[in-house]
């Protein structure tokens, strides 16, 4: 069997066969790799293991910025994450009413392995009972996989705790601004430096020396007289 | 410019001080040890400090539906739930055990909790609420002798090779008895569990028009008691 005649039907068949061989890797990819990728599709969510804690004590009527909560998408698909406050894990203390914690209502979109820090604000009502408060911060992922008509979802929880001390929170208008103490310190240092200079007796005296040929004030007065 | 005597003295003193400092600096520099700075770069990996979970179901769908009444033409058929109190499965307990949902704890040791939700019809009609069996049900089933769901109630029980939540899921996350050793639901890093679930439908549905219902099941890792 020789080389196919140019333009003949044998050559076309030959080329078609070669094209088919070239398509084989793509076909193998479609047959084996894609189904595996689909089978590995997963949804997942993560949250910081350490609890969210207010560094100091809270007071009735006060408003406090809590440390931002770290969340991560551990699944293979993009998903939106929202935070909710709900007590589900064991722990001691009074349960935090969800209305005390302000969380952003807009979900954060995260891709695979992407993470974010979501802010939380604590607003303690004026009639809050003093004591230790505890609850969970739950990160809910929007992603779900279907099992029939059941949507399977994931969430992850971490603790949230703080102590409400007796006594009302200082009024914002009477609160001492953070720059006040450094400013006062600087003024004291400057004042001490000036005091030292005046008390040390150091003097710098500047005198004008009359130029030769010029008339001094006294001479001018004598001539006029 | 005339500098008074006291000023001259101060100027001399300042000049002497400046010369001394300069001289000291020049004299002192050769005595300092001459060396080449060396830096040792070290890297360290830490264990994860994130609590996380991942689910990756295989082909999972409701099937093997049984129950209902032939007389009323409301017997279950294939993947369609019948009335009253038909039963459908995702996976199966017997005879061989099929658990299509894989749940993996991808973070630090945590308790794995699970919860269900109300079932909602596609036409926004009346939903079905979860109810529970057992001696201390969170929501009592109103069906026959409180052992079956009543009107607009249903039960979802999840199961794994080692057991499951026989009293049924609630709307609040609770310990997933199918997860972890001896039903304690404690899972360490990398621990995974395969699960399926059984759904027992209502005695009757007040929304008789809808034939499509959706519900959700959520797994949540929560802090351990030691956290």
> What's the CATH C level of the largest domain in chain A?
Mainly Beta
Backbone shape of chain B? elongated
Mean pLDDT across the residues of chain B is: 85
Tell me what portion of residues of chain B adopts beta-strand conformation.
25-35%
Rg over C-alpha atoms of chain B, rounded to the nearest angstrom:
36 Å
The overall strand count of chain B is 13
> Spans of chain A with pLDDT under 50 lasting ≥5 residues?
29-38, 214-225
* H and E string of chain B: HEEEEEEEEEEEEE
Uncertain segments of chain B of ≥5 residues (pLDDT<50)? Answer: 20-29
Strand content of chain A: 25-35%
The percent of residues in helical segments of chain A reads: 25-40%
Question: Which term fits the overall shape of chain A?
Answer: elongated
CATH fold assignment of the largest domain in chain A: Immunoglobulin-like
- CATH homologous superfamily assignment of the largest domain in chain A: Immunoglobulins
Please report the distance between the alpha carbons of the first and last residues of chain A. 142 Å
Query: If helices are DSSP runs of H or I spanning 4 or more residues, what is the number of helices of chain B?
Result: 1
Number of helices of chain A: 3
How many independent structural domains of chain B? 1
State the assembly state of the protein chains: heterodimer
Structural class of chain A: alpha+beta
How much is the radius of gyration of chain A in Å?
39 Å
Question: How does this model look, in words?
Answer:
The complex is a heterodimer of chains A (225) and B (227). With 225 residues, chain A is an alpha+beta fold. Chain A has two domains: 1-40; 46-164, Sandwich (Immunoglobulin-like). Helices cover 27% and strands 32% of the residues of chain A. Chain A has three helices and eleven strands; from the N terminus they run αβββββββββββαα. In chain A, the strands form two sheets. In chain A, strands 2, 4, 5, 7, 9, 10 and 11 form a seven-stranded mixed β-sheet that branches. A four-stranded antiparallel β-sheet of chain A has the order 1-3-8-6, with no helix packed on it. Chain A starts with 8 loop residues before the first helix and ends with a helix. Chain B has 227 residues and is mostly beta strands. Chain B has one domain (53-222). Chain B is 11% helix and 27% strand. In chain B, the strands form two sheets. In chain B, strands 1, 2, 3, 4, 7, 8, 9 and 12 form an eight-stranded mixed β-sheet that branches. In chain B, strands 5, 6, 10, 11 and 13 form a five-stranded antiparallel β-sheet that branches. Chain B is elongated. Residues 20-29 of chain B have low confidence and may be disordered. The chains are: A alpha+beta (225), B mainly beta (227). Chains A and B meet through β1, β9, β10 and β11 of A and α1, β1 and β13 of B. β1 (43-48) of chain A pairs antiparallel with β1 (50-55) of chain B, so a sheet runs across the interface.
């Amino acid at each position: 069997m020789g080389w196919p005649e140019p333009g003949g039907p044998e050559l076309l068949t030959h080329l078609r066969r070669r094209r088919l061989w070239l398509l084989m890797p793509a076909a193998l990819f479609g047959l084996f790799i894609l189904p595996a990728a689909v089978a590995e599709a997963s949804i997942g969510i993560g949250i910081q293991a350490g609890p969210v804690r207010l560094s100091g004590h809270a007071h009735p009527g006060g408003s406090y910025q809590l440390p931002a909560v770290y969340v991560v998408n551990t699944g293979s698909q993009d998903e939106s994450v929202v935070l909710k406050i709900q007590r589900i894990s064991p722990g001691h203390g009074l349960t935090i009413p969800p209305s005390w914690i302000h969380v952003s209502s807009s979900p954060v979109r995260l891709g695979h392995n992407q993470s974010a820090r979501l802010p939380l604000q604590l607003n303690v009502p004026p009639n809050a009972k003093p004591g230790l408060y505890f609850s969970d911060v739950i990160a809910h992922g929007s992603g779900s996989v279907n099992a029939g008509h059941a949507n399977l979802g994931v969430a992850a929880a971490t603790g949230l705790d703080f102590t409400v001390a007796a006594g009302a929170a200082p009024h914002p208008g009477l609160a001492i601004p953070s720059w006040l103490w450094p400013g006062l310190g600087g003024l004291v240092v400057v004042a001490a430096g000036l005091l030292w200079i005046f008390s040390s007796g150091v003097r710098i005296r500047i005198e004008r020396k009359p130029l030769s040929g010029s008339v001094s004030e006294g001479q001018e007065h004598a001539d006029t007289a | 410019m005339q500098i008074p005597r006291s000023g001259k003295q101060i100027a001399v003193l300042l000049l002497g001080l400046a010369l001394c400092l300069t001289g000291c600096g020049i004299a002192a520099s050769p005595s300092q040890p001459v060396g080449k700075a060396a830096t040792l770069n070290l890297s360290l990996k830490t264990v994860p400090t994130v609590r996380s979970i991942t689910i990756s179901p295989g082909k999972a769908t409701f099937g093997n539906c049984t129950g209902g009444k032939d007389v009323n033409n409301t017997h279950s058929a294939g993947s369609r739930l019948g009335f009253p109190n038909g039963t459908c499965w995702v996976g199966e307990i017997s005879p061989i055990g099929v658990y299509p949902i894989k749940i993996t704890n991808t973070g630090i040791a945590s308790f794995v909790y699970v919860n269900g939700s109300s079932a909602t019809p596609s036409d926004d009609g009346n939903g079905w609420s979860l109810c529970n069996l057992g001696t201390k049900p969170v929501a009592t089933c109103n069906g026959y002798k409180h052992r079956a769901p009543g009107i607009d109630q249903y039960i979802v029980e999840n199961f794994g090779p080692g057991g499951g939540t026989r009293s049924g899921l609630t709307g609040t996350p609770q310990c997933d008895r199918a997860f972890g050793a001896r039903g304690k639901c404690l899972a360490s890093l990398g621990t995974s569990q395969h699960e399926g679930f059984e759904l027992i439908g209502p005695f009757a549905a007040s929304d008789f028009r809808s034939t499509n219902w959706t519900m959700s099941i959520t797994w949540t890792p929560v802090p351990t008691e030691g956290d």
